[in-house]
Amino acid sequence: MSCTEQVSEDCGHVQPRSVFYMLLNLASSISIVLVNKWLFNNCSYEFPTFLTMLHFAFTFLGLQVCAWMGLFTPKPLALWRVARLSSAFCGFVVLTNISLQLNSVGFYQVMKVLTTPVIAVLQLAIYGTTLPRPIVGSLAVVCMGVTYSSITDTEVNLHGTLVACAGVLVTSFYQIWVGTEQKELEANALQLLYYQAPVSALMLLPVIPLLDDVPGLLAFEYTSSTLGFVVASCSIALFVNLSTFLVIGATSPITYNVLGHFKLSLVVVGGFLVFGYHVDVQNILGMCVVFVGVIWYTHLKLRAGSAERAVAAEAAQEKESLLGPSDSRA
User: Which DSSP string corresponds to 95-126?
Assistant: First the structure.
């Protein structure tokens, strides 16, 4: 089944619940970026590490409620197995929040896209995993778009760029590790996050004095508006994690990827509209190149996945025909 056919099938069997999950994921993924940026810029809430710790704590409490409601079943996991993953989880969320604080929404978003090419390079260097030429070509387009968008962004700065690059590197390691750990532990995303969130929150406690202005944090006067944005940010962080799981479960990974392309464009547009960034034609062109590269890469990966499933189904059918009806029943 092709990518287009899979999405069409999802749309043909769409349920109101699935539509709700997709809208929730769309709204929460866009809102978390814009709300956090508003906190940093307009509320002068310059404590991204502390905010990240609040996200982790709130996510754990939310997942506990979800477990009580039967949305998923927690699985006992050894904490030492989760520790490495939690440290990377802390690193990538903290660094991406600091990157959002220091950079424009557009630059922040295109740098996040750079994670995929970096993962490919790391897998080649560490595991010797090679990629087909078309996929390498699509990733090269992404890199060219990010580079062009960066050099034409009027808000770009050295400190923000270094933090964004560090965030991309840590995020890449995290995504590689989370895939291997899920397979080895035989746990789904929510079961893993159920342990990651509280461990990560505890890990961040001694880091807050190093990265945030603690005297400023203790002296900060919370207005009702700022407090509302902090609570909203924590709530949205939970919904981002939860809705991702629900969308993939209710539709398919292909539909989720298509939804991801739509989110990418809306976040960038939202950054220009909400925060009034200077619209530069060259910067927009760079983002468009990134967008084309992302779509091309996703299409190639999903087509390859469809081909692998077709081969596996054909092999299973041939095996069944060789065994015969009586043998297969036995």
Answer: HHHHHHHHS-HHHHHHHHHTHHHHHHHHHHHH
Tokens 């995303």 locate to: 189
Instruction: Give the residue among 188, 234, 190, 236 at the shortest CA–CA distance from 69.
Output: 190
Alpha-carbon gap, residue 148 to 284, rounded angstroms: 10
Sign of CA dihedral 155, 158, 163, 166: positive
Q: Are 97 and 30 in contact (CB under 8 A)?
A: no
Q: Which helix (H) or strand (E) holds 184?
A: helix 158-185
Cβ atoms of 139 and 116 closer than 8 Å: yes
Q: From CA 36, how far away is CA 100, in angstroms rounded?
A: 8
Percent of the chain with pLDDT over 90: 15
Render pLDDT for 105-117 as a digit per residue (tens, 0 to 9): 777 777 777 777 7
User: CA distances (Å), 100 to each of 9, 111, 123, 131, 189, in order?
Assistant: 37, 10, 27, 31, 25
Q: What is the dihedral of CA 58, 61, 62, 65, to 10 degrees?
A: -170
Q: Which 8-state DSSP code applies to residue 43?
A: S
Distance in angstroms (rounded) separating the CA atoms of residues 180 and 184: 6
